[in-house]
Amino acid sequence: MIVEQRTYVLHTGVKLSEYLDAYENIGLPVQKPVLGGFLGYFVTEFGTQNELNHFWAYSDLEDRRSRRARLAENERWQECLSIIRPMIMTMSNKIMYPTSFSPIRSLPVAGNDPDTAFAHN
Asked: Can you tell me the distance from the alpha carbon of 100 to that of 24, in angstroms, rounded to the nearest whole number?
């Protein structure tokens, strides 16, 4: 399994709420069934302002490549991109592999370790 961390920094002056509204209501409903493995979407409180981080799990790099290719062909996703891309100043991504002791090591993501976030409600 791999985890992709995608980090976007929005332009100063962009309303975070407008980006999140477009993404949540147009983009995410398309991405979730195509990409699968949605782990979470986060905004920053401290550090870089207007920064968004989202995390996606894939079986391997080929799984990621094929799913992202299918996503790129989706008209609704292209509609979302036409709205959100102008709001984004920088984009970066990382591909991460879990350690042997990570609570997230395989798909589907599940956990029963009482000392992890998965066990807390």
From this structure: 33
Structure tokens given for 120? 């807390």
pLDDT at 88: 98
Location of structure tokens 């990382």: 94
* CA–CA separation, 112 and 11 (whole Å): 40
pTM for this one? 0.85
Tokens of 45: 């409180």
Reduced 3-state DSSP string for the chain: CEEEEEEEEECCCCCHHHHHHHHHHHHHHHHHHHHCCEEEEEECCCCCCCEEEEEEEECCHHHHHHHHHHHHCCHHHHHHHHHHHHHEEEEEEEEECCCCCCCCCCCCCCCCCCCCHHHCC
